[in-house]
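A favour, since you know our structure tokens better than I do. It will help me judge whether the discrete encoding reads sensibly. The space below this message is yours for that.
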Amino acid sequence: MRAFSIIEALVAMAVCGIMFVALYGGISSSFFNIRLARENLRGTQVLLEKMEVIRLLTWDQINSNGFLAPNFSAPLFPSLTSSSNSAAFFYGQIDIQPVAGPGTSPDPGPGPGPGHPPKGKPGSGGGGSETPPVNGDELNANYSGDLRIVTVTIRWKTGGLEQSRRLSTYVSRFGIQNYVYN
């Protein structure tokens, strides 16, 4: 009878060890991707929830100071009520700005460059799809005072990685909110 040598046994153990590490890495990566997808979905729900609230507000409520809180937090799990686990919360901002009038262009911001990643393609989820700002020349002079751009931005951490999403919309004095209550 012939038995395995010590070298053959060590090679077999090394192959088994590599397979175990690869299997464990694959499982760990899968759990992280599921967590990331869950948090992205919940972040989208939070953005849409805030946009639905904005859709129902009257023009006077949108333009009044203090009616709509500029900063908010939302739990990852809706049953959470305490902020004891800060990693399980989304932190957001609501920014309401007038749209630039005729003869002016809106400030495009810092733009891509060091510290400012390029904007993702619409629908890509890579930083949120951006609504292009309305050029002041495209607006009727009588209408420019009756339009606001509302941007809701949320931030959170996933496994130590900073995540953020942004959603923008336009709100008009003569928009859908007039038909909800009347």
Remarks:
- The mean pLDDT is 77.
